[in-house]
């Protein structure tokens, strides 16, 4: 048995208003363009998520919502404040609570957490540009089995600028 984890760094955010708290920064024009492109790519790959978990930061929420719509995701995005601190342990704890029926889960978070999680699960080191998505195959039957010692394999890595 295996599960698919999609690890996504939020799309490009705006730095226009330097008075904004980092948590409140929205997507910029490129981010608003790239997020739905990546959602459509997931749909084309047959990887519409069964669950989407996102950081509570505005740029991550906007990314998750755009990807959800473009990918054909029918559920509700779940938001997790602990994802903002970039801790892979927080990601794993939330993922481990997913129902067994979920086959494909999308995690929308931040760097360096995305890169650290990928390295922990696969031993692979990849640079996560904004809106990049890593497809990881996890060798487990139930999400509850997920831990830092879970072995996974990096199957694909997509970056929005690949088509430019």
Description:
The protein has 164 residues and is an alpha/beta fold. It has a single domain (3-136), classed as Phosphoglycerate mutase-like (Rossmann fold, 3-Layer(aba) Sandwich). It is built from four helices and six strands; from the N terminus they run E-H-E-H-E-H-E-H-E-E. It has helices at 29-44, 58-71, 88-95, 113-122, and strands at 3-9, 51-55, 78-80, 104-109, 133-138, 152-158. Strands 3-2-4-1-5-6 form a six-stranded mixed beta sheet, with helices on both faces. Strand 2 (51-55), helix 2 (58-71) and strand 3 form a beta-alpha-beta unit. Helix 1 runs parallel beside helix 2. The longest helix is centred in the first third of the chain and has 16 residues, at 29-44. The radius of gyration is 14 Å and the shape is globular. 41% of the residues are buried. The model has no long low-confidence stretch (mean pLDDT 92).
- Could you name the CATH class? Alpha Beta
Strand content: 15-25%
CATH architecture annotation name: 3-Layer(aba) Sandwich
CA-based gyration radius: 14 Å
Assembly level: single chain
User: Spans with pLDDT under 50 lasting ≥5 residues?
Assistant: none
Distance between the termini: 36 Å
Overall number of strands: 6
Given the helix and strand composition, which structural class is it? alpha/beta
User: What is the CATH topology classification name?
Assistant: Rossmann fold
The order of strands across the largest sheet is 3-2-4-1-5-6
- Please bin the fraction of helical residues: 25-40%
By CATH, the superfamily comes out as Phosphoglycerate mutase-like
Shape: globular
What is the string of helix and strand elements? EHEHEHEHEE
pLDDT averaged over residues:
92
**Domain tally:** 1
Total DSSP helices: 4
The main sheet comes to:
6 strands, mixed
């Amino acid at each position: 048995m295996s599960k698919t984890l999609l690890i996504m760094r939020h799309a490009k955010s705006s730095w226009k208003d330097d008075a904004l708290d980092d948590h409140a920064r929205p997507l910029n024009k490129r981010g608003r363009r790239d997020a739905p492109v990546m959602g459509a790519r997931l749909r084309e790959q047959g990887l519409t998520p069964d669950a989407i978990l996102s950081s509570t930061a505005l740029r991550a929420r906007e990314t998750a919502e755009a990807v959800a719509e473009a990918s054909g995701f029918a559920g509700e995005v779940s938001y997790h404040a602990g994802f903002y601190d970039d801790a892979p342990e927080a990601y794993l704890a939330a993922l481990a609570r997913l129902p067994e029926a979920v086959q494909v889960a999308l995690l929308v978070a931040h760097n360096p957490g995305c890169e650290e999680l990928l390295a922990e699960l696969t031993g692979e080191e990849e640079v996560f540009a904004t809106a990049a998505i890593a497809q990881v195959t996890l060798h487990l039957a139930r999400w509850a089995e997920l831990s830092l010692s879970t072995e996974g394999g990096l199957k694909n890595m997509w970056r929005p600028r690949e088509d430019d």
